[in-house]
């Protein structure tokens, strides 16, 4: 792999990296709290088979699904749009040697503005914060997307 010089524009993208990473963490906590609230509901646990295993303060989470446990963790990165965060979603499985392994099955992308994208190439987003009081359809779709990713054949 060739390592090209960093351009001035690229260097400008990381000038506020610590502050922007903290802002992204705050947005990730909003997503985590919304997800925790949904996964604590009896309906979600009984109908979809989703429940939160870890009760930490986030943004990391472990979720039990009918397809096996998954975990989510926030990883900061930079690309041509600037500093962002990737919620990496991994599923637990067993290796050929019988060892427990985690493999990436999906990811969410968060930007400094609080937009949450389903995948790196997605252009449609949901806001990290609940827009209106009441039913949280955005986070329900996100939870069902996580469930689908956990069960999808690789």
Could you please describe the fold and organization of this structure?
The protein is of the alpha+beta class and about 150 residues long. Helix content is about 35%, strand content about 35%. The chain has helices at about 10-15, 15-40, 40-50, 135-150; strands at about 50, 60-65, 70-80, 80-95, 100-110, 115-120, 125. The protein has a 7-stranded antiparallel β-sheet.
Principal-axis shape equals: globular
- Which structural class fits the helix and strand makeup? alpha+beta
Oligomer: single chain
Task: Report mean pLDDT, rounded to a whole number.
Answer: 92
Widest β-sheet, arrangement of strands: 1-2-3-4-5-6-7
Sheet with the most strands, sense and barrel status: 7 strands, antiparallel
For the record, give the distance between the C-alpha atoms at the N and C termini, rounded to a whole number.
28 Å
Count helical runs: 4
**What string, H for helix and E for strand, traces the elements in order?**
HHHEEEEEEEH
DSSP strand tally: 7
Q: In percent terms, what proportion of residues is strand? A: 25-35%
Low-confidence stretches: none
CA gyration radius, whole angstroms: 17 Å
